[in-house]
């Protein structure tokens, strides 16, 4: 409004060279502010199907405010089944729930499972994975991030960095390369906000929400650099029974195989049908990953100490804060779990889940179970 008023005053003044130049300058500043406002409303609306050139319409504003009202958490049941409605009690319940969820389980002893993992990394792979990072790798990683993804703790979307890359390029690249040189995560870079996404309609407890982690852009660039180096080798490292996130494999293949197995079981002509199927409960699978198991799995697979240090710094240096109804709550430090929202997490989970595949391989070799053929 201030810029509009200033522009109106300038148009009412007598025509002069100085006034014309001032009008051009203020008009440019107003255009930039309007573009920023439109981007803010697009991001707030989360209507990702809207094309970049669409108008900043009334529909966009209605969708944005509707989302905000829809995601409001007004009451929840606690562990005793009592409804909690007070803001302070809801906030305390949310923080306590996630503190407990991300606290290490001392009864977990992963070493026997780690021993089942085969060494898959070759020396030449480790050399490629740990060679010095280039400025191009950092730039490519930044521009692979969705420009209007939800904001992290720093409050900046990737679009800010991408649009102003010529100005901030040097500082960003220096910060990212320093991490890879020193192996030290600067304080604040890995601060993460947990937002609660309902799994279905009318969620009643915190278990009915999916915790999505909103990471800072600088951290995402570091994580993306690691992912871009790891992806080409996944096909050689990960068991053929896993197909998600691996180039050249389709996750639908596993679903088709499962349907074929069920079809064979149902139409088996064996009078003593001894077939059975395991249904595994992978609820909160990312959140329950034990960090000692993750480190041990990476070591057993054969990753170099330098690479493992980079990965574990990304995982263990995190500090969480829950966002409840727009308010960021008290921060806390976890001792287990992977983040849904971290670009690196799906690929680390592949290494974790390979332990399960090796349990079944051991059982097959031991003769205790026989696979469907």
TrEMBL record:
- Alphabetical list of InterPro entries matching this protein: DNA/RNA_pol_sf (IPR043502), Retrotransposon-Effector_Assoc (IPR052343), RT_dom (IPR000477)
Please give the superkingdom of this protein's source: Eukaryota
Which SUPFAM superfamilies does the annotation name?
A: DNA/RNA polymerases
Membrane-crossing ranges are none
The UniProt record lists the Reverse transcriptase domain at 178-373
Q: Which PANTHER family match?
A: NON-LTR RETROLELEMENT REVERSE TRANSCRIPTASE-LIKE PROTEIN-RELATED, RNA-DIRECTED DNA POLYMERASE
Q: Which named protein is this?
A: Reverse transcriptase domain-containing protein
